[in-house]
Amino acid sequence: MINVIILGPPGAGKGTQSQRLEERAGLKQLSTGDMLRAEVAAQTEIGNKVKAILDRGDLVPDDLIVAMIGKRIGEFDCKYGVIFDGFPRTLAQAQALDAMLEKKGSPLKAVIELAVDEQELLNRQRSRIAETKAAGGEVRSDDNEETLRNRLSVFRQQTTPLIPYYRDRGVLETVDGMQPVDVVSRAIKAILAKNDGTCPASNGNAVKNACPTR
Ligand code: AMP
């Protein structure tokens, strides 16, 4: 059983890379953004509560997200492990995840940080919106420059503290997310293969080379 976190600013390719990774050995991709958008679309109580937050690009409250993930990872399709896409986004969420995984006896194998330049993200968004419109598609209500700028600032302030948090625990791996999608996928695959020799300590920290490679 393995769990992987894909960490990175909005638009860095977390979703694309997580989906590609999902094709590997029964891992389940869980995107908190997709889960929240599904609630909004279904106009549930949670959905109605979070719609404006999503549209602004702010973070929904930690307790709501933690409860949602806590429930979801207990489901059958998560039994071989999860690729967390867009979660955790705050230190409180990271600590809650540690506690949940420890309780489940399911270690964190790696945190993959996709490093991407902010200007590149704004450029990518412009092309994506233009392509979607050209194809007659509908642009997401939080896919505009103002919201992206806010989401980038929220990422800088609330999510980047997770980088030293996971680095200190020996599980952080950084991949240059500016490279072509296939190159990024291969880099992630190589990291996970390399980390097959990593043993989780009882406190959830990874101890490199502590046990023979399987
Ligand atoms: P995403 O699709 O991951 O970029 O998420 C879209 C939006 O959902 C974010 O801008 C937040 O408003 C909300 N969201 C997703 N994941 C989280 C999270 N882990 N914590 C708080 N808010 C989240």
Walkthrough of the structure:
The protein has nine helices and seven strands; from the N terminus they run E-H-E-H-H-H-E-H-E-H-H-H-E-H-E-E. With 214 residues, it is of the alpha/beta class. Strands 2-3-1-4-5 form a five-stranded parallel β-sheet, sandwiched between helices. A two-stranded antiparallel ribbon has the order 6-7. The protein binds adenosine monophosphate. Adenosine monophosphate (AMP) binds at residues 10, 31-33, 36, 53-54, 57-60, 65, 86-89, 93, 151.
Strand order of the largest sheet: 2-3-1-4-5
Topology order in helix (H) and strand (E) letters: EHEHHHEHEHHHEHEE
Shape: globular
Sequence stretches where pLDDT stays below 50 over 5 or more residues: 197-214
Number of alpha- plus pi-helical segments: 9
Structural class: alpha/beta
N-to-C terminal Cα separation, in Å?
Answer: 13 Å
Tell me the total number of β-strands.
Answer: 7
What ligands can be seen in this structure? Answer: adenosine monophosphate
Helix share of residues? 40-55%
